[in-house]
Write a structure and sequence with these properties.
Structural class: mainly alpha
Number of helices: 11
Helix content: over 70%
Largest sheet: none
Order of helices and strands: HHHHHHHHHHH
Shape: globular
Distance between the termini: 55 Å
Length: 330
């Protein structure tokens, strides 16, 4: 599964991409040899990595259970992030720690609920329902009438996806996916707050450690000794690398040269990527109606992001004009 990507310090939720299994990505990240792929290629590669990691997680669930898979993913990713970032533990206020703890809770809840969903319904529909959380956050934050159009498109997609009443999907799985979307919206809000309080990706590493500690007892209760089986551990590490570590790195590199609005629109394609991963790896074919539903939700997500971006650009024009007049007057 994924986590949505939000750029730390971004005040607008629309700049947080409606993506699954992503992390906040600081601006000004260093480039590297991956940069030759181009920023768009890096983002798409990250999206592919996330969704194919989620497909691998689904195939791992019979061995370790949904909660066990989440535990392995969070634990391995937390260890890697802590070793790479080496966050400073001293010098933070109580409010800083409160923010990072809530961020970790949102991250754990988002992952846990999403994996409960994909244990019951196909990956593509699960991601489509989950992305409604960030979409709703973007629509409510904008407060523009045109966003009612995007909300209507998304609701039409959900109606088609559920066959008019979720008769074609497991109701519990759909409910878990919608709940994961709500946690995703909370993740976006607190990822931005954490990014403003902690340097680089330190807050992300600490929040991931919080999430791993929260899920460890649940994973032990459900899976017990299965978690230390060598094959299960190896597959769990693969899920962590594909769904967390690799996409975080690729997105971090991409955002050095890619505007956040463009990044957000690219992330709106994740339900389609998830559907492709489900088909190729898990043999989860979609009906024509389900494909149309996913297309509607993607269109709604892209429209909402573009509307929010246009609103911010319009708001900056008077400020720029005033600044120009002031400089001329001086």
């Amino acid at each position: 599964m994924s986590t949505p990507s939000a750029t730390p310090g971004t005040s607008s939720p629309a700049a947080a991409a409606p993506a699954v299994g992503h992390a906040p990505v600081p601006d000004g990240a260093p480039g590297g040899r991956f940069g030759s792929l181009g920023p768009v290629g890096l983002v798409l590669a990250g999206g592919l990595s996330v969704q194919f990691g989620a497909a691998l997680a689904v195939s791992l669930m019979p061995r370790a259970g949904a909660l066990g898979v989440v535990t392995l993913r969070l634990a391995v990713a937390a260890v890697v992030m802590l070793l790479v970032c080496r966050p400073r533990l001293r010098g933070h206020s109580r409010a800083d720690w409160g923010t990072v703890v809530v961020f970790g809770i949102a991250m754990a809840g988002m992952n846990g609920l999403f994996y409960q969903a994909v244990d019951r319904i196909p990956l593509g529909p699960a991601v489509t329902l989950e992305v409604l959380g960030p979409l709703a956050l973007s629509v409510f934050a904008s407060r523009r009438a045109v966003n009612l159009v995007w909300a209507a498109l998304a609701l039409a997609g959900v109606f088609l996806l559920g066959g008019g009443g979720f008769d074609g999907l497991d109701p519990a799985g759909a409910a878990f996916a919608l709940a994961a979307g709500a946690m995703w919206a909370a993740y976006i809000v607190f990822s931005a707050r954490t990014g403003r309080r902690f340097p680089q990706a330190d807050g992300l590493a600490l929040a991931m450690a919080v999430g791993a500690l929260l899920f460890l007892p649940l994973g032990i209760v459900e899976s017990g000794p299965k978690l230390i089986d060598p094959v299960t551990l190896a597959l769990g590490a693969g899920v962590a690398l594909l769904s967390s570590v690799l996409p975080y790195t690729l997105e971090l590199l991409a955002l050095r040269r890619l505007p956040a609005p463009t990044f957000a629109i690219l992330m709106s394609l994740e339900p389609a990527i998830a559907a492709a991963a489900g088909f190729l790896i898990l043999d989860q074919a979609l009906s024509a109606t389900q494909s149309a539903a996913i297309a509607l939700v993607i269109a709604a997500s892209m429209g909402a992001v573009r509307t929010q971006v246009g609103r911010r650009k319009t708001a900056t024009l008077p400020e720029a004009s005033q600044a120009s007049q002031a400089s001329q007057a001086s």
